[in-house]
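User: Structure please.
Assistant: Input sequence and predicted structure:
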Amino acid sequence: MNSVPRTVGRARRIAMNVFAVFLTSSAICASSQELKVVLSGNQEIPPVATSASGTGTITVNADRSVIGNATITGMSVTVAHLHEGAAGTSGPIIIPLIRTADNVWSVPSGARLTDAQYESYKAGNLYFNIHSEAHRSGEIRGQIKP
C-alpha cells in the first residue's frame, strides 16, 4: 500500500520536470526567429549607385548563436561581413562571412554574439555588408531589424 503514494509522487515529479523542460524549450524557440534582410547600395554609407542587390536571412538564438547567409547578384564579392552599427552609421566587423556557394556568403558554424552584440542585435544595430573591388568599404548593405 505504501508504494502507491510513492509511485504517484514520483509520477507527479516526472510530469512536472517534463513540463519545465517543455516551457524552457518553448521560450528558447520563441526567442529565435529567422529574419529576412534586403541588401542594396542605397543603404551604404555613403550610398552607392549599383545594380547589385542581395537578400539575407539571419537567426540569432537565445544562446546568442548565429545562423544565416546572404545571396548576392550583380557584383563580384571580395569579402562579406556582419557589422555592428545603427542604420546610417558604419561600425566594426563582428562576424566575417564565408563563401559557401556561388553568390552565397554564410555565417560560419559556431558563430556567437557577445552579450553587448546581442543587445545591439535586439536594437536593430547589426547589418550585412558586402564588399567589392570597386567599393572596398562596401557595395551593398542590409540592416538587420528584429
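Confidence is low (pLDDT under 50) at residues 18-30.
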